[in-house]
Amino acid sequence: MFGSDRIKKIDLQIKWEEMIENGEGKFIWIDTILKEFLPLAMVLITVDYFFFTKNQINQEIVIAYSVKFLLIFLVGFLEGKLDWKFFQRIFGPSLNTFKGLRKRYLINNGVLTFGLPLGIINFRIFNSSFIFEYVRLSIWLIIGVVFGAVLWFKNKEQFENVIND
Question: pLDDT tens digits for 33-61?
Fold first, then answer.
């Protein structure tokens, strides 16, 4: 899912035109939450359940996975809103700096799309010390920043072309 096929340049202008045509609500609810984050949540929760909970079902596990699913849903909503604003900044008159664009890209595509969902899934609500879990969540957020940086450097040239036009 996150292999080299996933890390390829995108045509920003076409994506923005599709987003405008469909509207902000459809982009957030359908394209971001339903097509990206809900499948991601289901896959991550399924893998976590079968590999790390020893196939047990009890009230704590149901509550934990419900909370995780809700959190990933909320992260998807936030990422959709921020992605919409990100593209508005690229194609709108309010683009400030290329550096500000990079920071927003790292947060959207690294932290919110990769690091935070994986950190949420790996967070053990009932079974561990919270200090250990927050350290683990922090590590996933750092990994998300690194992943976002890799994506940024792969797509940086295309963003420069759009900004310089």
Answer: 998 888 988 888 888 888 877 767 888 88
Look at residue 91 and tell me if it is in a domain: yes
Q: What is the domain extent for residue 67? A: 12-164
Give 105-129 pLDDT, tens digit per residue.
888 889 998 899 988 888 887 766 7
Do 159 and 12 meet the contact criterion of CB atoms below 8 Å apart? yes
User: Would residue 64 count as lying in a domain?
Assistant: yes
Q: How far apart are CA 78 and CA 74, in angstroms?
A: 6
**Crossing angle for the helix pair 59-91 and 38-52, nearest 10 degrees?**
150
Q: Tell me whether residue 7 is in a domain.
A: no
Question: Shortest CA distance to 122 belongs to which of 47, 36, 58, 33?
Answer: 47
Task: Determine phi and psi for 57, rounding to 5 degrees.
Answer: -120, 120
Residue 2 lies in a domain: no
Number of domains in the chain: 1
pTM flag (> 0.85) = no
Is residue 147 within 8 Å of residue 3, measured between CB atoms?
A: no
Quote the tokens at residue 57: 């079902």
